[in-house]
Specification:
The structure is a single chain. The protein folds into two domains: about 60 residues, no CATH class; about 120 residues, Serine Threonine Protein Phosphatase 5, Tetratricopeptide repeat (Alpha Horseshoe), CATH 1.25.40.10. By secondary structure, it is an all-alpha fold. The protein is about 60% helix and about 0% strand. The protein has eleven helices and no strands. Helix 2 runs antiparallel to helix 3, helix 5 packs antiparallel against helix 6 and helix 7 packs antiparallel against helix 8.
């Protein structure tokens, strides 16, 4: 499965790089979904589909955003502390609408869902809604361990920063130990647990900001996942 998926992914990359043909690339990723629907390979194919550039973007290199290519294997990212990725500038409500629109079209887009969780906390101080998005990511059956570790660390950090509640923050970190008890990640997690109280004391409390109409039925809680069939 991995060899076939790798070959199809490489062909899709060639279609994008040399043929400037995102439709053909999408067909190749959809073949992975059809061949291996319940697999890690399908998980990564969905991420690629969610971030395919348009033909117009490929035709105008000076206008297209960098294409991020998820890797089947990568180094572990603990996601310790505040999220390292800077959120795009502009109005927070405008960014919120963009992320909701992206997830309505691509419910499996991990990056957009993580960005939404970060936005809920950093712009609106809605820990409950951020937690819901992270839990959806963590619950995916074929999500890489490195990403699950990152999301659990983010969840722990959010609780520390927003409420100072060390019990719930500790529970998130202990979930990493349950999953990867004998790994190097576990040792780093134990180190974070040892400093949890100190980090909680240093956290600043924030007043929640009213979210407004975007909170109402944003279509991310109960919307069924689209079919993987081409």
């Amino acid at each position: 499965a991995k060899n076939v998926a790798f070959a199809l992914t490489r062909l899709a990359d060639w279609r994008l790089r040399y043929g400037h043909d995102p439709a053909a690339a999408r067909q190749l990723f959809e073949r992975i979904l059809a061949l291996y629907p319940d697999s890690e390979e399908a998980h990564f194919a969905r991420q690629r589909i969610a971030h395919l550039p348009t033909a117009e973007m490929l035709a105008a290199p000076e206008n297209r955003a960098p294409l991020q290519l998820p890797r089947l294997k990568g180094r572990c990212d603990l996601g310790a502390g505040s999220p390292a990725r800077a959120m795009p500038g502009g109005d927070a409500h405008e960014r919120l609408a963009q992320l909701i629109q992206q997830l309505a079209a691509f419910p499996h887009d991990n990056q957009a869902r993580e960005d939404l969780a970060v936005l809920y906390v950093e712009a609106f101080h809605r820990l409950d809604m951020a937690t819901e998005q992270l839990e959806q990511l963590i619950a995916q059956p074929h999500a890489p361990h490195s990403r699950v570790v990152r999301w659990l660390n983010l969840l722990s950090d959010f609780h520390v920063r927003e409420t100072g509640a060390t019990d719930t923050a500790r529970q998130a970190l202990e979930r990493i130990l349950e999953r990867l008890s004998g790994s190097p990640v576990a040792e780093l997690t134990r180190a974070r647990l040892a400093t949890l109280n100190l980090r909680a004391k240093a956290a600043h409390e924030s007043q929640p900001v009213k979210l407004g109409t975007y909170e109402q039925n944003i279509g991310l809680k109960t919307a069924p996942a689209p079919s993987d069939s081409p």
